[in-house]
């Protein structure tokens, strides 16, 4: 009897430990890749490799839904912003599960995904994420010296934003790229815009994929500050349309809507998307403000609760645009 009670207690303890670990273990590239492949197999999701990073890691996109029109949600443009991958992977799993079971989710009818699919790219910058999470100790000594130089002499890589070659991916898009000022002149942990737009393999892959699927709206998740950026010289006739969507997202998340200056300088993915497709795009900043590092995992549950409906809200908006 005592042995049976001990065994049950041990099983319960291990279950609790596993459940806790599953929600608090950070998303590395390998973990993300394994789980996205598993989810695609479990729910028969369309999974694409849209390109490779500078170091040859797969850039993965997965689609939830069967609609011929779509929206696109991306995360981890910056190495230290992998909390965004957590939120996106949660969306993929919960949306796919509810859709397969023909269930509503958070008050939303998942039949919306028959009309509007959601494409997700959970980790645009797997090289940068890996450097930020694991450092450079596995690299040859000569390369370590180069990376420490790019990191301004600092051997702590927790502030790393750039891709594997020291290019800031969210300064790489051809929307005001020439006007970006205050940028690093050479490859660095942050703020180096590169020698020309879309020279990074990651940004070229994402821009090509965007052109392929031509989504009706897009959201790019970043950290930190609990802000929503949405404006980059939007067409006057689209201002009210775009702002209506942004207000819905702001009301649901509780995040502040940012209103940039009239002379806003671009280079970001959503800047390029707005300029190219004349459709709404949001840059959503998760978490309370942090300095040059990743937000703590302890904030994940709150940020998930704030953002868990955003993909479905955007899909509903896109459906209204199709029916307009």
- The spatial strand order of the largest sheet comes to 1-2-6-3-7-10-8-9
Q: Oligomerization state of this entry?
A: single chain
Order of helices and strands: HHEEEHEEHEHHHEEHEHEHH
Shape: globular
Q: Strand tally, please?
A: 10
First-to-last CA distance: 68 Å
What share of the residues does DSSP label as strand, in percent? 5-15%
The overall pLDDT average reads: 91
Poorly predicted regions: 1-23
Instruction: Report helical residue fraction.
Output: 40-55%
CA radius of gyration is: 20 Å
Please characterize this protein's 3D structure.
The protein has 324 residues and is of the alpha/beta class. It is built from eleven helices and ten strands. The chain has helices spanning 2-24, 29-43, 83-100, 112-115, 126-134, 141-150, 201-213, 239-253, 269-277, 300-307, 310-323; strands spanning 46-52, 58-64, 69-74, 104-105, 108-109, 116-121, 218-223, 227-229, 256-257, 281-286. The strands form two sheets. It has an eight-stranded mixed beta sheet, sandwiched between helices. A two-stranded antiparallel ribbon has the order 4-5. Strand 4 (104-105) and strand 5 form a beta hairpin. Helix 2 packs parallel to helix 3 and helix 8 runs antiparallel to helix 11 (310-323).
